[in-house]
Amino acid sequence: MPKVFNITGNCIPRLHYMVNIDSRLQAIRKLVDAGQYITINRGRQYGKTTTLKALSRFLSDSYYVLDMDFQTAMSGAAFETEESYAKAFVKAFCFVMKRLNPSPEIQTELQDMKTDAEGSFQLSDLFMHLSDICLTADKPIVLLIDEVDSASNNQVFLDFLAQLRGYYLNRDNVPTFQSVILAGVHDIRNLQLKIRPDAEHKHNSPWNIATALEVDMSFSPDDISGMLRDYEADHSTGMDIAAISQTIYDYTSGYPVLVSMICKFIDEKANAVWTGESIAEAVKYIINEPTPLFESLINKIEDYPELREMLYAMLFSGKEYSFNVDNPTFRLMHMYGFVTKRGGKAVIANRIFETRLYNYFLSVEKTSSPIAQDGALHKPEFIENGKLNMERILERFVAVYTDLYSDQPEAFLEDAGRRLFLLFLRPIINGTANYYVEAQTRNQRRTDLIIDYLGEQYIIEMKIWRGKEYNERGEQQLREYLDYYHIDRGYLLSFNFNQIKQIGTKSVQVGDKTVFEAIV
Question: Which end of the chain is least crowded, N or C, by CB within 10 Å?
Answer without folding.
Answer: N
